[in-house]
Amino acid sequence: MLIQSKYQTQLGTCYHSKIEDFLNSEIAFDLKGKVNLIITSPPFPLNRKKKYGNLNGQEYLDWLSGLAVKLNELLSDDGSLVIEIGNSWEPNVPVMSTLPLKALLGFLEEGKYHLCQQFIWYNTAKLPSPVQWVNIDRVRVKDSFTNIWWMSKSTSPKANNKNILEEYSESMKRLLKTKKYNSGARPSEHNIGEESFLTDNAGAIPGSVLVGANTQSNSNYQSYCKENNLEPHPARMPYFIPDFFIKFLTDVDDLVLDPFGGSNTTGEAAEKLGRKWVSIEANEDYIEASKGRFETITQPVQ
């Protein structure tokens, strides 16, 4: 496939290309060692074909692990790779597949990555699935989360959780105001001093479970698709996910790359946070629709 720059913004470029072709291109060669964060949600290993493409079984394992080394080469020494891998079920039986776990292990081993931390995206609006086992036979509960794996090139990648602090709870606000805390020994044998909880750190450290839905219907992206008679991407990454990891793992002016750009949520988040970005997407229709995420774009001369 010919690699084309389909549009540019002040900070980023969206390329029309299969990721395999892009990784073997001169563009990728020039990016080696310069990418601070790769964040993506590749097609999941599902048991039926989706419009956005997906593989199955050993074919999927070989394909995903085959990308690991070349993606690693793009990362800076302190760079990170964040990848969402959804759950999968065996065909015709109410049994989960181990394929996503095998895909993760194969990717880690082939690319020689370090696994920094596991995150969960709990989708509060996830529809019941698998339908046969949840809605009809009623022998399973709905599959409402996906795994997000943070891995890195080194054991000490760039990261700062001060950039993603959450607002204190009302009880914590009262505690900071009254300065009264029941310190001392706990049944766990931890001895907690007052200073541990009475220091105002401007917010609470978030946990590794990201909670949110993907049901926004009045975004600029949705409006652009409707106005231009374009079909929205069927599996869009919610904005809060790239927003969280870009803040956590990069600084302003760093470079963020999404190998499976889809509707280019990653590019939008990077742009708003002052990071440079590169998005690669094989489906030209999805690229056209993703233009709706940006106020100002330029069309490259072909």
How would you sum up this structure in a few lines?
This protein has 302 residues and is an alpha/beta fold.
Describe the 3D structure.
The protein has 302 residues and is an alpha/beta fold. It has 2 domains: 4-164 and 208-293, 3-Layer(aba) Sandwich (Rossmann fold), CATH 3.40.50.150; 167-204, no CATH class. Helices cover 30% and strands 21% of the residues. It is built from 10 helices and 11 strands. It has helices at residues 19-23, 26-31, 57-74, 99-111, 131-136, 170-178, 220-227, 240-249, 265-272, 284-290, and strands spanning 4-8, 12-16, 35-40, 75-85, 114-123, 145-152, 184-185, 191-192, 209-212, 255-258, 276-281. It has a 9-stranded mixed beta sheet, sandwiched between helices. The protein has a two-stranded antiparallel sheet with strand order 7-8. Strand 10 (255-258), helix 9 (265-272) and strand 11 (276-281) form a beta-alpha-beta unit. Helix 8 (240-249) crosses helix 9 (265-272). The longest helix has 18 residues, at 57-74. It is globular, with a radius of gyration of 21 Å. The two termini are 15 Å apart. The model has no long low-confidence stretch (mean pLDDT 89).
